[in-house]
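Table S2 (continued). Query chain:
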Amino acid sequence: MSDDNIYTTDGSDQLTADSRYRRSRRAVSWVGIVLGVLFGIAPTLYFTWAISPLELTNIQPNQLSEEGRAQYIAAVALAFNHDGDLNRATDRLLAAAQPQEDPFEKSAQVACRLAQSGYVNSSGGVRAVRALKQFYQLQGRSGCADDLVLVADVPNPIVTVALDTPTPQPPATKTPTIAPSPQPSGTPPPVFVPTEAPLQAYTLVGISTFCRVAERGLIEVFVQDFNGNGVPGEPVRVRWEGGEDTFYTGLKPERSTGFADFEMDTNLRYTVEMPERSQPSSQQLAPSPCTAQGGQGGATSYQVIFRQS
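Corresponding output:
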Protein backbone atom coordinates (compact mmCIF):
# COMPACT_ATOMS: atom_id res chain seq x y z
CA MET A 1 0.00 0.00 0.00
CA SER A 2 1.35 3.36 -0.99
CA ASP A 3 2.10 6.02 1.65
CA ASP A 4 0.30 8.63 -0.44
CA ASN A 5 -3.10 6.96 -0.07
CA ILE A 6 -4.30 5.54 3.25
CA TYR A 7 -7.31 3.22 2.92
CA THR A 8 -9.63 1.72 5.52
CA THR A 9 -8.95 -1.77 6.82
CA ASP A 10 -12.06 -3.20 5.17
CA GLY A 11 -10.55 -2.63 1.75
CA SER A 12 -12.99 0.07 0.63
CA ASP A 13 -11.82 2.88 -1.61
CA GLN A 14 -12.72 5.67 0.87
CA LEU A 15 -9.92 7.75 2.30
CA THR A 16 -9.38 7.99 6.02
CA ALA A 17 -9.76 11.25 8.01
CA ASP A 18 -6.02 11.85 7.78
CA SER A 19 -6.34 12.46 4.05
CA ARG A 20 -8.00 15.88 4.60
CA TYR A 21 -4.60 17.25 5.62
CA ARG A 22 -3.26 16.32 2.22
CA ARG A 23 -5.77 18.47 0.26
CA SER A 24 -4.44 21.41 -1.73
CA ARG A 25 -4.82 24.84 -0.08
CA ARG A 26 -6.02 28.04 -1.85
CA ALA A 27 -3.12 30.45 -2.19
CA VAL A 28 -5.38 33.61 -2.44
CA SER A 29 -8.07 34.88 -0.07
CA TRP A 30 -10.45 37.03 -2.10
CA VAL A 31 -12.21 38.30 1.00
CA GLY A 32 -8.90 39.51 2.39
CA ILE A 33 -8.04 41.24 -0.87
CA VAL A 34 -11.38 43.09 -0.99
CA LEU A 35 -11.10 44.21 2.63
CA GLY A 36 -7.51 45.34 2.09
CA VAL A 37 -8.45 47.38 -0.94
CA LEU A 38 -11.37 49.03 0.86
CA PHE A 39 -9.35 49.93 3.95
CA GLY A 40 -6.48 51.17 1.77
CA ILE A 41 -8.46 53.29 -0.70
CA ALA A 42 -11.03 54.85 1.66
CA PRO A 43 -8.54 57.03 3.61
CA THR A 44 -6.89 58.12 0.37
CA LEU A 45 -10.20 59.15 -1.19
CA TYR A 46 -11.21 61.03 1.96
CA PHE A 47 -7.92 62.94 1.99
CA THR A 48 -8.05 63.89 -1.71
CA TRP A 49 -11.75 64.80 -1.75
CA ALA A 50 -12.30 66.41 1.66
CA ILE A 51 -8.98 67.46 3.19
CA SER A 52 -6.81 68.41 0.21
CA PRO A 53 -8.86 68.44 -3.01
CA LEU A 54 -7.11 68.97 -6.31
CA GLU A 55 -7.25 72.54 -7.60
CA LEU A 56 -7.25 72.75 -11.37
CA THR A 57 -5.25 75.59 -12.92
CA ASN A 58 -4.54 76.67 -16.47
CA ILE A 59 -7.50 74.73 -17.85
CA GLN A 60 -9.30 75.33 -21.13
CA PRO A 61 -12.57 77.33 -21.16
CA ASN A 62 -14.59 74.26 -22.23
CA GLN A 63 -13.35 72.44 -19.11
CA LEU A 64 -14.94 74.97 -16.77
CA SER A 65 -18.04 74.23 -14.74
CA GLU A 66 -21.38 75.43 -16.09
CA GLU A 67 -21.24 78.44 -13.78
CA GLY A 68 -17.67 79.20 -14.84
CA ARG A 69 -18.60 79.00 -18.52
CA ALA A 70 -21.48 81.41 -17.95
CA GLN A 71 -19.15 83.95 -16.35
CA TYR A 72 -16.66 83.48 -19.20
CA ILE A 73 -19.31 83.98 -21.92
CA ALA A 74 -20.56 87.15 -20.18
CA ALA A 75 -17.02 88.53 -20.14
CA VAL A 76 -16.64 87.74 -23.87
CA ALA A 77 -19.82 89.68 -24.63
CA LEU A 78 -18.58 92.67 -22.62
CA ALA A 79 -15.26 92.62 -24.47
CA PHE A 80 -17.11 92.51 -27.81
CA ASN A 81 -19.29 95.40 -26.68
CA HIS A 82 -16.09 97.38 -26.16
CA ASP A 83 -13.96 96.50 -29.21
CA GLY A 84 -16.54 95.16 -31.72
CA ASP A 85 -14.15 92.39 -32.84
CA LEU A 86 -16.56 89.62 -33.88
CA ASN A 87 -13.85 87.19 -34.99
CA ARG A 88 -12.08 87.45 -31.66
CA ALA A 89 -15.33 87.00 -29.74
CA THR A 90 -16.32 83.99 -31.85
CA ASP A 91 -12.95 82.31 -31.30
CA ARG A 92 -13.30 82.82 -27.55
CA LEU A 93 -16.81 81.38 -27.55
CA LEU A 94 -15.77 78.37 -29.62
CA ALA A 95 -13.01 77.70 -27.08
CA ALA A 96 -15.70 77.42 -24.39
CA ALA A 97 -18.29 75.51 -26.45
CA GLN A 98 -19.11 71.87 -25.94
CA PRO A 99 -19.30 69.52 -28.98
CA GLN A 100 -22.22 70.29 -31.32
CA GLU A 101 -23.05 73.45 -29.33
CA ASP A 102 -24.01 76.71 -31.06
CA PRO A 103 -21.95 79.38 -29.24
CA PHE A 104 -24.39 82.16 -30.08
CA GLU A 105 -27.38 80.15 -28.93
CA LYS A 106 -25.46 79.36 -25.77
CA SER A 107 -24.99 83.11 -25.24
CA ALA A 108 -28.77 83.56 -25.36
CA GLN A 109 -29.24 80.74 -22.83
CA VAL A 110 -26.65 82.25 -20.51
CA ALA A 111 -28.29 85.70 -20.73
CA CYS A 112 -31.66 84.13 -19.87
CA ARG A 113 -30.29 82.32 -16.82
CA LEU A 114 -28.31 85.29 -15.52
CA ALA A 115 -31.20 87.72 -16.03
CA GLN A 116 -33.46 85.53 -13.89
CA SER A 117 -30.95 85.23 -11.05
CA GLY A 118 -29.40 87.53 -8.50
CA TYR A 119 -26.58 88.20 -10.98
CA VAL A 120 -28.39 91.35 -12.17
CA ASN A 121 -28.59 92.82 -8.68
CA SER A 122 -25.32 94.62 -9.37
CA SER A 123 -24.64 97.23 -12.02
CA GLY A 124 -21.89 95.02 -13.45
CA GLY A 125 -24.34 92.14 -13.85
CA VAL A 126 -26.86 94.37 -15.60
CA ARG A 127 -24.20 95.58 -18.05
CA ALA A 128 -23.13 92.00 -18.74
CA VAL A 129 -26.66 90.79 -19.52
CA ARG A 130 -27.32 93.80 -21.75
CA ALA A 131 -24.07 93.10 -23.61
CA LEU A 132 -25.09 89.45 -24.03
CA LYS A 133 -28.49 90.47 -25.40
CA GLN A 134 -26.94 92.84 -27.91
CA PHE A 135 -24.37 90.24 -28.92
CA TYR A 136 -26.67 87.30 -29.66
CA GLN A 137 -29.38 89.48 -31.21
CA LEU A 138 -26.85 90.76 -33.76
CA GLN A 139 -26.29 87.11 -34.72
CA GLY A 140 -30.01 86.48 -35.27
CA ARG A 141 -30.62 84.59 -32.02
CA SER A 142 -33.28 85.17 -29.41
CA GLY A 143 -33.98 84.09 -25.87
CA CYS A 144 -36.08 84.67 -22.80
CA ALA A 145 -33.89 87.63 -21.80
CA ASP A 146 -35.46 89.56 -24.70
CA ASP A 147 -38.71 89.88 -22.74
CA LEU A 148 -37.12 90.70 -19.39
CA VAL A 149 -36.96 94.38 -18.49
CA LEU A 150 -33.84 95.15 -16.49
CA VAL A 151 -33.55 98.15 -14.20
CA ALA A 152 -30.95 99.69 -16.49
CA ASP A 153 -33.30 99.31 -19.49
CA VAL A 154 -35.80 101.77 -18.00
CA PRO A 155 -34.94 105.30 -19.16
CA ASN A 156 -34.08 107.69 -16.40
CA PRO A 157 -36.93 110.04 -15.57
CA ILE A 158 -36.50 113.61 -16.62
CA VAL A 159 -36.41 115.80 -13.55
CA THR A 160 -37.08 119.49 -14.06
CA VAL A 161 -35.86 121.93 -11.47
CA ALA A 162 -37.28 125.46 -11.23
CA LEU A 163 -34.53 128.05 -10.97
CA ASP A 164 -34.86 130.83 -8.43
CA THR A 165 -35.01 133.67 -10.93
CA PRO A 166 -36.32 136.98 -9.68
CA THR A 167 -39.83 137.75 -10.86
CA PRO A 168 -40.76 141.40 -11.34
CA GLN A 169 -43.57 142.51 -9.09
CA PRO A 170 -46.70 143.73 -10.90
CA PRO A 171 -47.76 147.29 -10.26
CA ALA A 172 -50.16 147.88 -7.45
CA THR A 173 -53.82 147.73 -8.44
CA LYS A 174 -57.03 148.25 -6.65
CA THR A 175 -58.05 144.69 -7.38
CA PRO A 176 -57.31 142.54 -4.40
CA THR A 177 -55.16 139.53 -5.10
CA ILE A 178 -56.13 136.18 -3.70
CA ALA A 179 -53.31 134.50 -1.86
CA PRO A 180 -52.73 130.93 -2.93
CA SER A 181 -54.17 128.43 -0.55
CA PRO A 182 -51.55 126.53 1.40
CA GLN A 183 -51.02 122.86 0.63
CA PRO A 184 -52.77 120.44 2.92
CA SER A 185 -50.56 119.37 5.76
CA GLY A 186 -50.81 115.74 4.62
CA THR A 187 -49.15 116.35 1.24
CA PRO A 188 -45.63 114.91 1.31
CA PRO A 189 -42.79 117.08 0.04
CA PRO A 190 -41.32 116.14 -3.35
CA VAL A 191 -38.54 113.58 -3.22
CA PHE A 192 -35.67 113.79 -5.69
CA VAL A 193 -33.98 110.48 -6.48
CA PRO A 194 -30.50 110.58 -8.04
CA THR A 195 -30.62 109.17 -11.54
CA GLU A 196 -26.93 108.30 -11.76
CA ALA A 197 -25.02 105.80 -9.66
CA PRO A 198 -21.90 107.03 -7.87
CA LEU A 199 -18.94 106.87 -10.22
CA GLN A 200 -16.35 105.80 -7.67
CA ALA A 201 -17.84 102.38 -6.93
CA TYR A 202 -14.44 100.76 -6.35
CA THR A 203 -11.33 101.67 -4.41
CA LEU A 204 -7.76 100.65 -5.17
CA VAL A 205 -6.82 98.84 -1.95
CA GLY A 206 -3.39 97.47 -2.77
CA ILE A 207 -0.57 96.93 -5.26
CA SER A 208 2.01 94.22 -4.62
CA THR A 209 4.90 92.96 -6.74
CA PHE A 210 6.23 89.55 -7.70
CA CYS A 211 8.92 88.31 -10.09
CA ARG A 212 7.60 86.58 -13.20
CA VAL A 213 10.00 84.21 -14.93
CA ALA A 214 9.46 85.62 -18.40
CA GLU A 215 10.74 88.39 -20.63
CA ARG A 216 7.65 90.55 -20.09
CA GLY A 217 6.00 91.57 -16.86
CA LEU A 218 2.33 91.06 -16.04
CA ILE A 219 -0.36 93.18 -14.38
CA GLU A 220 -2.79 90.91 -12.54
CA VAL A 221 -6.01 92.66 -11.52
CA PHE A 222 -8.50 91.33 -8.96
CA VAL A 223 -11.89 93.07 -8.71
CA GLN A 224 -13.73 92.14 -5.53
CA ASP A 225 -17.01 92.88 -3.79
CA PHE A 226 -17.37 93.93 -0.15
CA ASN A 227 -16.66 90.39 1.05
CA GLY A 228 -13.61 89.81 -1.15
CA ASN A 229 -15.42 87.68 -3.76
CA GLY A 230 -14.56 88.14 -7.44
CA VAL A 231 -16.84 90.34 -9.55
CA PRO A 232 -16.99 89.33 -13.24
CA GLY A 233 -17.70 91.60 -16.19
CA GLU A 234 -16.03 94.72 -14.79
CA PRO A 235 -13.88 96.87 -17.10
CA VAL A 236 -10.21 97.50 -16.35
CA ARG A 237 -8.15 100.06 -18.26
CA VAL A 238 -4.38 100.22 -18.51
CA ARG A 239 -2.77 103.40 -19.83
CA TRP A 240 0.74 104.23 -20.98
CA GLU A 241 2.29 107.09 -22.88
CA GLY A 242 0.63 107.11 -26.28
CA GLY A 243 -1.86 104.30 -25.73
CA GLU A 244 -4.37 102.46 -23.57
CA ASP A 245 -6.20 99.12 -23.46
CA THR A 246 -9.48 98.09 -21.81
CA PHE A 247 -10.24 94.48 -20.86
CA TYR A 248 -12.76 92.72 -18.61
CA THR A 249 -12.71 90.48 -15.59
CA GLY A 250 -14.03 86.92 -15.83
CA LEU A 251 -12.17 85.57 -18.88
CA LYS A 252 -10.03 83.36 -16.63
CA PRO A 253 -12.46 82.13 -13.95
CA GLU A 254 -10.08 79.34 -12.95
CA ARG A 255 -8.03 82.09 -11.28
CA SER A 256 -11.01 84.09 -10.05
CA THR A 257 -14.29 85.36 -11.49
CA GLY A 258 -12.94 88.85 -10.82
CA PHE A 259 -9.53 88.26 -12.41
CA ALA A 260 -8.03 89.92 -15.49
CA ASP A 261 -4.44 90.37 -16.63
CA PHE A 262 -2.37 92.45 -19.02
CA GLU A 263 1.14 91.77 -20.36
CA MET A 264 3.43 94.78 -20.29
CA ASP A 265 6.05 95.89 -22.78
CA THR A 266 9.53 96.71 -21.59
CA ASN A 267 10.63 100.34 -21.21
CA LEU A 268 7.06 101.55 -20.64
CA ARG A 269 5.27 102.75 -17.52
CA TYR A 270 1.62 102.00 -16.84
CA THR A 271 -1.27 103.19 -14.71
CA VAL A 272 -4.33 101.04 -14.05
CA GLU A 273 -7.92 102.00 -13.25
CA MET A 274 -11.52 100.95 -13.61
CA PRO A 275 -12.93 103.50 -16.08
CA GLU A 276 -15.65 105.63 -14.45
CA ARG A 277 -15.57 103.20 -11.51
CA SER A 278 -12.40 104.12 -9.63
CA GLN A 279 -9.58 106.61 -9.43
CA PRO A 280 -6.47 105.74 -11.48
CA SER A 281 -3.45 104.40 -9.64
CA SER A 282 -0.97 107.06 -8.64
CA GLN A 283 1.85 104.52 -8.77
CA GLN A 284 3.33 103.85 -12.19
CA LEU A 285 3.96 100.19 -12.92
CA ALA A 286 7.11 99.27 -14.84
CA PRO A 287 8.37 95.76 -15.76
CA SER A 288 11.94 96.14 -14.50
CA PRO A 289 14.31 93.13 -14.43
CA CYS A 290 14.24 90.95 -11.30
CA THR A 291 15.56 87.66 -9.94
CA ALA A 292 13.07 84.97 -8.99
CA GLN A 293 13.52 82.24 -6.41
CA GLY A 294 16.09 79.77 -7.64
CA GLY A 295 18.16 82.47 -9.30
CA GLN A 296 16.13 82.65 -12.52
CA GLY A 297 15.85 86.01 -14.23
CA GLY A 298 12.49 87.58 -14.89
CA ALA A 299 10.43 90.77 -15.05
CA THR A 300 8.76 92.59 -12.19
CA SER A 301 5.00 92.00 -12.22
CA TYR A 302 2.14 93.42 -10.18
CA GLN A 303 -1.03 92.30 -8.43
CA VAL A 304 -3.62 95.08 -8.21
CA ILE A 305 -6.76 94.75 -6.07
CA PHE A 306 -9.91 96.87 -6.49
CA ARG A 307 -12.66 96.45 -3.89
CA GLN A 308 -16.18 97.85 -3.75
CA SER A 309 -16.34 101.05 -1.78
